[in-house]
């Protein structure tokens, strides 16, 4: 890997992900393999926290965008369904689940494209510099860019 890219990755992982000075001192005592695993684990945890917030925001934005594009007949249909959702909790639950599943599907597709684009900007190669999928615990260090 290009030394400049490696230095930038180390900088981002230590400064952006791990803000605490105590934690930075702790990380300096780790082996490169342990350090890389800690960095990935912390990044994954933060990603999952942000994913939940963003997915809800994305779903809400999609809902309001659809409403902003409705014709009179579309507005009538959506109003009727929204009214039914208010009255029928089971119907509301089922419809909300379908909307959530659609949001997750759209999010996955969009995230995949975003990862590809950002990886390209960094010049990362999938399967070499970046994992194509989450590793198993026993395979954790096989693609370690710190080793």
Describe the structure.
- Helices cover 76% and strands 0% of the residues.
- With 147 residues, the protein is mostly helical.
- Helix 3 crosses helix 5 (89-122).
List keywords for this structure.
single chain; 147 residues; mainly alpha; 5 helices; 76% helix; disordered C terminus
Explain briefly what this protein structure is.
By secondary structure, the protein is mainly α. It has 5 helices and no strands. Helix 3 crosses helix 5 (89-122) and helix 4 (72-87) packs across helix 5.
Q: What topology emerges from the helices and strands here?
A:
Elements: H1 3-17, H2 21-28, H3 32-69, H4 72-87, H5 89-122
Mean pLDDT rating: 77
Instruction: Give the count of helical stretches.
Output: 5
Count of individual beta strands: 0
Low-confidence stretches: 137-147
Name the shape in a single word: elongated
Major beta sheet summary: none
The string of secondary-structure elements, in order, is HHHHH
Category by helix and strand content: mainly alpha
Q: Report Rg.
A: 21 Å
- N- and C-termini, Cα separation: 11 Å
Instruction: State which percent range the strand residues make up.
Output: under 5%
Roughly what percent helix? Answer: over 70%
């Amino acid at each position: 890997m290009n030394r400049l890219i490696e230095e930038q990755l180390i900088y981002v992982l230590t400064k952006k992900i791990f803000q605490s000075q105590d934690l930075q001192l702790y990380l300096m005592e780790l082996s490169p393999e342990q350090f890389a695993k800690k960095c990935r684990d912390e990044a994954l945890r933060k990603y999952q926290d942000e994913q939940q917030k963003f997915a809800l925001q994305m779903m809400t934005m999609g809902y309001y965008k659809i409403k902003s594009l409705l014709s009179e007949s579309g507005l009538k249909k959506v109003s009727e369904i929204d009214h039914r959702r208010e009255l029928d909790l089971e119907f509301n639950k089922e419809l909300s689940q379908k909307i959530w599943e659609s949001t997750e599907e759209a999010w996955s597709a969009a995230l995949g494209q975003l990862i590809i684009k950002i990886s390209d900007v960094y010049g990362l190669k999938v399967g070499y510099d970046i994992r194509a999928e989450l590793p198993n615990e026993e395979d954790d260090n096989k693609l370690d860019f710190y080793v």
